[in-house]
């Protein structure tokens, strides 16, 4: 069952007295919802995702999962990164089963559970090979199998496909939301890529920079699987681009006003 995530008025400074990296972020993600977080490089997307994963605690406010404050990582929410962090001396099956083995599950039971996932992800015939012999896309599928094996309520993805070739990326952009829908997992993906956000999410959140805030949202009400060439897809892409540009224009406008005000103050002095 997917979990509810609440972002309760989150502000974060990396050091005392520094300008906030994130400011007053409030939102609610419903069980089984799939959300994409987009924004310019350095706006704080990964910082926010790390907070959802319990890897970083906000200076103010908190993240709640099903009403409980997140204070540490948990097997109930798994994170996937751009590069699959696999143990190169282990087989596909051993890597995929790691989370289950760490939780104390017997090897035969763990292997039987991951075999189902490897089948689903098209890796069944590779289960005994060393992960080093796999392509980047196949390795990312092993990491996905490992993330799913512990039956998570939440899947957090930090630009997981950006290092992959276009064909593999497109396939995974279709497969991962399908799996999340099947298994009723709440998903949050951080991406730079507007098309990826539309291809994978029910809702796209736009973040501003300095400080990072959620300044826009767009519901993606397109049928699955999403086709990039469809008129509805292209129209949403245009809407997101416009919102993005408005955000930048808004920031540029605010900056100009601040600079003018500062100059006026200096002149007046
Ligand atoms: N541990 C840290 N200590 C100090 N500053 C940090 C730390 N981690 C991140 N930052 C700063 O916080 C800001 C947001 O970083 P973050 O990685 O969250 O951005 P992002 O939107 O994910 O960027 P990208 O899209 O390039 O990955 C950046 O200015 C970054 O330099």
UniProtKB/TrEMBL annotation:
<dbReference type="InterPro" id="IPR003439">
    <property type="entry name" value="ABC_transporter-like_ATP-bd"/>
</dbReference>
<keyword id="KW-0547">Nucleotide-binding</keyword>
<dbReference type="InterPro" id="IPR027417">
    <property type="entry name" value="P-loop_NTPase"/>
</dbReference>
<dbReference type="InterPro" id="IPR017871">
    <property type="entry name" value="ABC_transporter-like_CS"/>
</dbReference>
<dbReference type="InterPro" id="IPR050166">
    <property type="entry name" value="ABC_transporter_ATP-bind"/>
</dbReference>
<protein>
    <submittedName>
        <fullName>NitT/TauT family transport system ATP-binding protein</fullName>
    </submittedName>
</protein>
<dbReference type="Pfam" id="PF00005">
    <property type="entry name" value="ABC_tran"/>
</dbReference>
<dbReference type="GO" id="GO:0016887">
    <property type="term" value="F:ATP hydrolysis activity"/>
</dbReference>
<feature type="domain" description="ABC transporter">
    <location>
        <begin position="5"/>
        <end position="234"/>
    </location>
</feature>
<dbReference type="InterPro" id="IPR003593">
    <property type="entry name" value="AAA+_ATPase"/>
</dbReference>
<dbReference type="GO" id="GO:0005524">
    <property type="term" value="F:ATP binding"/>
</dbReference>
<comment type="similarity">
    <text>Belongs to the ABC transporter superfamily.</text>
</comment>
<keyword id="KW-0067">ATP-binding</keyword>
<keyword id="KW-0813">Transport</keyword>
